[in-house]
Design brief:
With 259 residues, the protein is of the alpha/beta class. It has a single domain, classed as Rossmann fold, CATH 3.40.50.150. Helix content is 40%, strand content 15%. The protein has a seven-stranded mixed beta sheet with strand order 3-2-1-4-5-9-6, sandwiched between helices. Helix 6 packs across helix 9.
């Protein structure tokens, strides 16, 4: 994660704001009350760390990239730690709960990351927010960016495999809860523009989405040109306009609760 976000993380916080509906879902999934101590693994610029701290939780924000940590806004209830999921710089059984928001696919060793989370949180909940692209309901993005979809299949393991890993390594029961993506999502991750396709034409927004930011620009050129053309001449609306009536969509995002 460190090398990738040291390269692509500049300006990340501008378009990756914590969405309050996801914060609500995370709070329900953790089922803990403030002032519980939570570890945010792969905290990035701290958008969700701050949101949870605003609710009274004490947060240990673990992030390897100095580029990302430098963008963090200081909060009295957030303590920043330089470290990776595979070597979390916290003591055994030192937190009441752990959460990880769209970061597990960047871990160098997923198995070690889960074991480390279980080490620092022996009895409390571990909650991951992650994506399985195989479960996308209406995946029109893959038609424009097939290379990115294929890359997503490589970096995001199948949901069943991730659940089995969490169960085996964390020694907890796993519940997978679908999280439909709202049409006005404030956190501009991969599927945030499912009803706002023009969003993907903005280079600043693409730079805050790792699949786009890490891709070869040449691999994106044709898809971007086709999307721009289809939006201009009405082709996109003719093909996918039915989803404009939807308020939310299942794009394969899941809250995994290990408790």
């Amino acid at each position: 994660m460190e090398n990738a976000y040291d390269r692509i993380g500049v300006g990340y916080s501008k378009h990756r704001c914590a969405d309050p509906r996801l914060v609500d879902a995370l709070t329900r999934a953790l089922a803990l009350a403030p002032p519980a101590v939570l570890a945010d693994i792969g905290a990035g610029t701290g958008n969700y760390s701050r949101a949870m701290a605003d609710r009274g939780f004490h947060i240990e924000a673990v992030e390897p990239s100095p580029v990302m940590r430098k963008q963090a806004v200081t909060h009295p209830l957030v303590a920043w730690r330089r470290g990776t999921a595979e070597a979390i710089p916290l003591g055994d059984d030192s937190v009441d709960g752990v959460f990880c928001i769209l970061a597990s696919h960047h871990f160098g060793d997923l198995e070690s990351g889960v074991s480390e989370m279980a080490r620092i949180c022996r009895a409390g909940p571990i909650v991951w927010f992650t994506l399985d692209p195989r479960r996308e309901e209406l995946p029109w993005l893959r038609n424009y960016f097939p290379e990115l979809h294929e890359q997503g299949l490589k970096v995001f393991r199948p949901l069943e495999e991730v659940c089995h890993l969490l169960e085996a390594r964390a020694k907890r029961q796993i519940t997978a809860i679908p999280w439909p993506v709202p049409n006005d999502l404030q956190d501009c991750f991969w599927a945030a523009g499912w009803r706002r396709p023009e969003m993907y034409l903005d280079p600043e927004i693409r730079a805050s989405i790792s699949l786009f930011a890490l891709a070869d620009p040449a691999a994106l050129a044709d898809g971007l040109s086709m999307l721009e053309r289809d939006l201009a001449d009405g082709t996109w609306r003719a093909k996918y306009g039915a989803i404009l009536q939807r308020q939310a969509i299942d794009w394969g995002y899941r809250l995994l609760i290990a408790s």
